[in-house]
Amino acid sequence: MQHHEFQPGGVNPALITPFTRDDGVDEEALRNLLRFVRPHVDGVVPCGTTGEFVYLSQDERRRVLEICIDEVAGEIPVIAATGAASTRESIELGRHAVEAGATACLVVTPYYLHPSDKGIFQHFYEVAKAVDLPIILYNIPQTVDAYLPRQVLEDLSEIDNIVGLKDSSGDLPYMMEVLEMTQGRLEILVGHDEVVMPALAAGCSGMILASAQIFPEVWQDVFRKMREGDVEGARRSQREVQKLARIFVRYGGGVAVKAALNMMGVKVGHPRRPLKPVGGAMIHETRAEIQLELEKLGKIQSPEGSWAMPKGPLEDRFNDLGIAACSIEDNRVHLGTATEGEHVDRVGIDVIVGPKGSPVGAAYARQLTHPRHGYEALTTIAEPNLTVRPSTLIVPTIELVNLRQASMVYGPTQAAVARAILDNVEEGTIPAQALDQMVMIVKATIHPRALDRHQLFANVRRAMYRAIKMTYGKVRSELKAYQEAT
Description:
Elements: E1 10-13, H1 27-37, H2 58-72, E2 79-81, H3 87-100, E3 104-108, H4 117-130, E4 135-139, H5 141-144, H6 150-156, E5 162-167, H7 172-182, E6 187-190, H8 196-202, E7 206-209, H9 216-228, H10 231-240, H11 242-250, H12 254-263, H13 284-296, E8 334-340, E9 347-355, H14 359-369, E10 378-379, E11 381-383, E12 386-387, E13 391-396, H15 403-427, H16 434-437, E14 438-446, H17 453-485
Parallel strand pairs: 1-7, 2-3, 3-4, 4-5, 5-6, 6-7, 13-14
Antiparallel strand pairs: 8-9, 9-14, 10-13, 11-12
């Protein structure tokens, strides 16, 4: 056994494995990915969890490793993920890594059938003795369903070519105990994207992360600032990517990272079955969140398109519904408007209210019987099968072009409009006489990239509440005068 000088550290992406349309390993896409990340990273790690290694055959794992080693041509270390459920298979993959020219091996805790602590120690001991490369142990209880025991780690740290631990648990107390128990005999690399900055502060020497192939320069910035003692600067940098880091961790790396890379123009295909890119492992809203966060980081361009709050006189904003400005005052029709929020969470609410026999009632019926594609109207309900009173219709002002946009209008927006109406009924702003006599149409302007359902609900509720106050002050006066006259 040779003496190994390799010390793992710095920023290392846990590479995805690109697949072709017919589900084969896509060599061209893999080489393109390596060229994309190589200038910004300190090493690469193929065939790990993010690389969907459990869906790869041994031959495919060997081939992916060989492509990576050939492509980087010795410029940066290639840490081969050679973990397997069985000791024999892990040794076979490790020996191939030696022959192929890998720098080190990453070996995960045995999984599926769980050995005793003694069995875990024996597994790593045999792999380390049989494979003439530096070995990095790999703790990922989220998928293995067990921690790599601390006491076992302490004993393993005495073996000459076991040089590090990748800890993907995100469990900082566990990491702190490992750092204390191994006393510098192992280099600890954080593998949980959400806790990079605190892990580096605790004493980790680097990171192996799925997100390091999306924004490696941010992690290099965090790494450098922590080395320089600029904790506040590192904290700011981590916060810039915290939402994306969280998404990548929660969705297991491969699914979300492949979606992000494809958005960025680095085409890597889809995950292998049974993982699904959208609608299965990852919902449409999450995909939209990834896109928005990538735009904030400057990784992709914001989609072109004109979006703005409605402008001009309020009485002209209902022309497209067949309610002409000239018919408003003559038919006991009244208007209200309000906006709430900032940036993509900004909403606009325009309300028109009138008797059922007025142009508002006619427009209400017309919108339900002849819906416009992309602007389909929605009846306001307080709960299933219970419509609010006065009868109220919501019409989007921005064309709904995808399911995510529709879910924002036909979801939190609908619920918030209903809640604001009920609030105003309870407070007496909407008089009892109006509940059956009047109808309302709400034109809702929701940013096409709105994502925060809770914030959207709150903003629409406040805007709708204020628009109703503005509208029904006039309605109440009119109803009072009508009652006195009759």
